[in-house]
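chain below, 165 aa
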Amino acid sequence: MTSDPVTGFSAGKPKSAPSNSASALPAPASAHDNEAFHARFSRRVQYLTVILGFAAAIAIGLAKSRPAGYGIALGSLLAWLNFRWLEQGLSSFVRGSASQEGLPKPQVPISTYAKFGGRYALIGLALYGMVTFLAVPALWLIVGLLALGLAVTVEALYEVISGSR
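prediction:
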Protein backbone atom coordinates (compact mmCIF):
# COMPACT_ATOMS: atom_id res chain seq x y z
CA MET A 1 0.00 0.00 0.00
CA THR A 2 1.17 3.52 -0.76
CA SER A 3 0.21 6.61 1.13
CA ASP A 4 -0.72 9.96 -0.33
CA PRO A 5 2.04 12.48 0.55
CA VAL A 6 -0.49 15.32 0.95
CA THR A 7 -3.17 13.69 3.08
CA GLY A 8 -1.22 10.78 4.58
CA PHE A 9 -4.05 8.33 3.77
CA SER A 10 -3.21 4.94 2.37
CA ALA A 11 -4.44 3.87 -1.02
CA GLY A 12 -5.81 0.38 -1.47
CA LYS A 13 -8.01 -2.00 0.46
CA PRO A 14 -7.89 -2.20 4.23
CA LYS A 15 -6.47 -5.42 5.67
CA SER A 16 -9.71 -6.33 7.41
CA ALA A 17 -13.13 -4.96 6.65
CA PRO A 18 -15.48 -4.18 9.55
CA SER A 19 -18.29 -6.65 10.07
CA ASN A 20 -21.78 -5.70 9.00
CA SER A 21 -23.47 -7.26 11.99
CA ALA A 22 -26.26 -5.28 13.61
CA SER A 23 -24.78 -5.90 17.05
CA ALA A 24 -21.86 -3.55 16.24
CA LEU A 25 -24.21 -0.57 16.06
CA PRO A 26 -25.47 1.11 19.22
CA ALA A 27 -29.16 0.89 19.91
CA PRO A 28 -31.06 4.07 19.06
CA ALA A 29 -32.02 6.16 22.06
CA SER A 30 -35.68 6.39 22.97
CA ALA A 31 -37.52 9.71 23.12
CA HIS A 32 -37.55 9.45 26.91
CA ASP A 33 -33.77 8.96 26.99
CA ASN A 34 -33.29 11.99 24.73
CA GLU A 35 -35.52 14.15 26.94
CA ALA A 36 -33.67 13.04 30.07
CA PHE A 37 -30.31 13.71 28.43
CA HIS A 38 -31.43 17.17 27.31
CA ALA A 39 -32.80 18.00 30.77
CA ARG A 40 -29.48 17.05 32.42
CA PHE A 41 -27.47 18.93 29.79
CA SER A 42 -29.62 22.03 30.14
CA ARG A 43 -29.51 22.00 33.93
CA ARG A 44 -25.71 21.70 33.96
CA VAL A 45 -25.34 24.49 31.37
CA GLN A 46 -27.50 26.76 33.52
CA TYR A 47 -25.50 26.01 36.67
CA LEU A 48 -22.19 26.42 34.85
CA THR A 49 -23.26 29.74 33.32
CA VAL A 50 -23.96 31.23 36.72
CA ILE A 51 -21.00 29.60 38.52
CA LEU A 52 -18.40 30.43 35.87
CA GLY A 53 -19.83 33.93 35.39
CA PHE A 54 -19.75 34.72 39.09
CA ALA A 55 -16.29 33.20 39.52
CA ALA A 56 -15.02 35.45 36.72
CA ALA A 57 -16.88 38.41 38.24
CA ILE A 58 -15.19 37.90 41.60
CA ALA A 59 -11.76 37.44 40.03
CA ILE A 60 -12.06 40.50 37.76
CA GLY A 61 -13.73 42.52 40.50
CA LEU A 62 -10.75 41.94 42.77
CA ALA A 63 -8.08 42.24 40.09
CA LYS A 64 -9.47 45.08 37.96
CA SER A 65 -12.35 47.04 39.49
CA ARG A 66 -15.72 46.57 41.13
CA PRO A 67 -17.70 47.95 38.15
CA ALA A 68 -15.96 45.42 35.89
CA GLY A 69 -16.93 42.61 38.26
CA TYR A 70 -20.50 43.89 38.43
CA GLY A 71 -20.60 43.98 34.63
CA ILE A 72 -19.51 40.36 34.33
CA ALA A 73 -21.98 39.25 37.01
CA LEU A 74 -24.89 41.09 35.40
CA GLY A 75 -23.90 39.91 31.92
CA SER A 76 -23.77 36.29 33.04
CA LEU A 77 -27.20 36.64 34.66
CA LEU A 78 -28.55 38.02 31.38
CA ALA A 79 -26.94 35.10 29.51
CA TRP A 80 -28.60 32.66 31.91
CA LEU A 81 -31.96 34.39 31.49
CA ASN A 82 -31.58 34.35 27.70
CA PHE A 83 -30.85 30.61 27.75
CA ARG A 84 -33.92 29.96 29.92
CA TRP A 85 -36.18 31.95 27.61
CA LEU A 86 -34.72 30.28 24.53
CA GLU A 87 -35.32 26.86 26.04
CA GLN A 88 -38.91 27.74 26.96
CA GLY A 89 -39.58 29.07 23.46
CA LEU A 90 -38.17 25.98 21.80
CA SER A 91 -40.12 23.73 24.16
CA SER A 92 -43.35 25.45 23.17
CA PHE A 93 -42.48 24.95 19.49
CA VAL A 94 -41.81 21.25 20.08
CA ARG A 95 -45.00 20.75 22.11
CA GLY A 96 -47.03 22.61 19.51
CA SER A 97 -45.61 20.65 16.61
CA ALA A 98 -46.07 17.33 18.41
CA SER A 99 -49.70 18.11 19.22
CA GLN A 100 -50.42 19.06 15.60
CA GLU A 101 -48.60 16.16 13.98
CA GLY A 102 -50.23 15.15 10.73
CA LEU A 103 -52.05 18.44 10.14
CA PRO A 104 -51.36 20.00 6.73
CA LYS A 105 -50.69 23.49 8.13
CA PRO A 106 -49.76 23.57 11.83
CA GLN A 107 -50.54 26.78 13.72
CA VAL A 108 -47.93 28.49 15.91
CA PRO A 109 -49.25 30.98 18.46
CA ILE A 110 -48.15 34.58 17.97
CA SER A 111 -47.02 34.64 21.61
CA THR A 112 -44.30 32.13 20.75
CA TYR A 113 -42.86 34.47 18.14
CA ALA A 114 -43.20 37.37 20.59
CA LYS A 115 -41.16 35.45 23.17
CA PHE A 116 -38.35 34.89 20.67
CA GLY A 117 -38.18 38.55 19.64
CA GLY A 118 -39.06 39.86 23.05
CA ARG A 119 -36.12 38.26 24.78
CA TYR A 120 -33.71 40.17 22.55
CA ALA A 121 -35.59 43.41 23.14
CA LEU A 122 -35.61 42.93 26.92
CA ILE A 123 -31.93 42.02 27.00
CA GLY A 124 -31.12 45.05 24.86
CA LEU A 125 -33.13 47.31 27.18
CA ALA A 126 -31.46 45.78 30.23
CA LEU A 127 -28.00 46.32 28.73
CA TYR A 128 -28.89 49.91 27.83
CA GLY A 129 -30.19 50.58 31.34
CA MET A 130 -27.14 49.07 33.01
CA VAL A 131 -24.71 51.06 30.90
CA THR A 132 -26.68 54.31 31.07
CA PHE A 133 -28.05 54.40 34.60
CA LEU A 134 -25.78 52.08 36.58
CA ALA A 135 -22.57 53.10 34.78
CA VAL A 136 -21.54 49.48 34.28
CA PRO A 137 -18.85 49.20 31.58
CA ALA A 138 -20.35 47.72 28.39
CA LEU A 139 -17.23 45.66 27.67
CA TRP A 140 -17.58 43.75 30.92
CA LEU A 141 -21.29 43.16 30.33
CA ILE A 142 -20.39 41.57 26.99
CA VAL A 143 -17.71 39.46 28.68
CA GLY A 144 -20.38 38.32 31.14
CA LEU A 145 -22.70 37.38 28.27
CA LEU A 146 -19.95 35.07 27.02
CA ALA A 147 -20.33 32.96 30.17
CA LEU A 148 -23.05 30.97 28.40
CA GLY A 149 -20.70 30.04 25.56
CA LEU A 150 -18.05 28.98 28.06
CA ALA A 151 -20.61 26.93 29.99
CA VAL A 152 -21.76 25.11 26.84
CA THR A 153 -18.13 24.42 25.89
CA VAL A 154 -17.29 23.04 29.34
CA GLU A 155 -20.42 20.88 29.33
CA ALA A 156 -19.69 19.56 25.84
CA LEU A 157 -16.13 18.66 26.87
CA TYR A 158 -17.52 16.90 29.94
CA GLU A 159 -19.88 14.89 27.72
CA VAL A 160 -17.07 13.92 25.34
CA ILE A 161 -14.59 12.99 28.06
CA SER A 162 -17.07 11.11 30.26
CA GLY A 163 -18.69 9.36 27.29
CA SER A 164 -22.05 9.69 29.01
CA ARG A 165 -24.06 9.34 25.82
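Confidence is low (pLDDT under 50) at residues 6-10, 13-17. The two ends are 37 Å apart (CA to CA).
thats it, cya
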